[in-house]
Amino acid sequence: MIWSSNLLMSIIDIWFIALAALLLFTHYRHSKRHKIYLSRSTMILPISGIVIIAIFYAFDLVTMTIVPEYLGHDRAMSIMRELHLNWHWPVFLVAVTLLVTGFVRSIREASTTMRLVESAELRAHDERRRMADFASAASDWFWEMDESLRFTWVSPNIEVVTGHPPEWHYAKTREEISASDIDSAQWQNHLDTIKAEKPFKDFIYKGDGSGRATGKWLKISGVPIFDSAGRFAGYRGAGSDVTREIEAELAAEKAGLLLNDAISRLSEVFVLWGPDDRLVLCNDAFRAINAAVPEAVEPGILYADHVRIQMEKGCYPDAVGNEEEWYRNRLEQHRNPAGPMERRRQNDTWLLVDEQKLPNGATVTIALDITKQKTLTRERDEALEAAVAANKSKSTFLANASHDLRTPLNAILGFSELMQKQIAGPLGSPKYIEYAGDINHSAQNLLELVDDLLDISAIEAGKRVLNLEPIDVRELVDSCFRTIAGIAKSKKITLIVSVPADLVSLYADAMGLRQILMNLLSNSVKFTPQGGKITVSAANIDRSTVITVTDTGKGISTEKLSAMLSPHSDGEFIRTESERGWGLGISIVRSIVDLHQGSMQIESSPASGTSVIIKLPTEAS
Fold it and tell me: Mean per-residue pLDDT for 168-193?
């Protein structure tokens, strides 16, 4: 009975071990196939159950075969009975528990792992889809090569650039689909880099030839890829169409060269100092003016060094004897430019220098050679000084000559008047009386001329001082009319006064204003023919008093009007051949009006006579 029971137990143990081992092996293969790796503790549990059953079965087998030979049949049967009745089922239950627990844990781990794998695959799928969307939406394209450097994949965007679908590029090498200048050094360096399995970035080339991106500029970058064993597996990379950028750069470069050429041809000095105050660009004019110091115009030289080198070579005459202070001032002017400034250089060359700061901190210097202008200005100033000195000498001479002439003229006037009146007795022939009158009249005219010369000299010398006081213009006009009334009556000239009674008094120099009116009226009487008319009018306009003297004389031509305002012109503005004038009267009038800060205007034509309009400030300024 015991042996039958032992046999049954052994069969159960063997079957259990075989089944457990089969399940364990099947589960292991399934997990490996699906790349599901179980934890070590999970694998130990079922293996431990199998080992326990195997040990128990081995001990049972030893009891049935070996123990009877050494301990006897009865003793062996007793041990076997004890083993089967008390230990078999507990050991079996422990083994089953370990097996079941191990299988449950492995199933749970496998399920968890499967879910993680599925989730990872889903994420990987989404990522691939996402990258594909990016590749499709981007203007760039992406590509892959295998270990033989042939294209295996290209994103669809490539068709927009090359006109060929991605499949057209497959199994082709770079040499087969690239530009016609494949033999150039640039391309050979690029191909050598690829063959050396090195990464490359921003390789730019121009598409050319049939079936390519003709005329377009392309840029590609790539990195080598390697498998898990470190073997070269090909390249992955990206490309883009950079035609606009390259053409813009080429256009900018061309414009820059054109600008440089234009700047170089400028006659003006042009210099560009960078934000770090180093020489960036200059033209031929700048080099020419610094020909004596070529080391001072080397690109990259600091402005401070440029100035010091020139200063030490004597290129700045104004710095001699005061070098350091001049140097500091020049650097400060360069850092904070305040508009154009004149600079004297070697060989008495003058430059008008204008410096401007740019937004990035750079400085532009433009200089114009003004040597000729400075020379002309100097010559003009010297000529002006000479003219002023000559005019002063002339005025002095006229003043002295006038004073010297007055003494004999006064004697001539006095003696001729005595002779006219025959104070010392009869002269004899009546002709002598007529001659004495002519002498007196000529001397009187000469004395008036001398007085005019004295007035001109005083005004030009700045010695004429105005004594401003309120003046009744109507009274002054009447007084002047009374003075010329005799001459006007002899020529049957009508004198008209048109001055309103309520005219505001004029603040002026009484003697100067009388001199103005007398000069104008004398000219009018002199140049107005028999039966003519002379009118003096006055009016307050704004804050000025306007006095107008109008005659009906023959008038003055336009070309002669300007001569009337110039002193010492003789006969240039004569309106009739019967009367001659020196031209000093109008000049004196103009000078006195200017002293009053007024203005004078002459309106005249040969057909309508002449009007002289004097405008003076009513109130003293």
Answer: 83
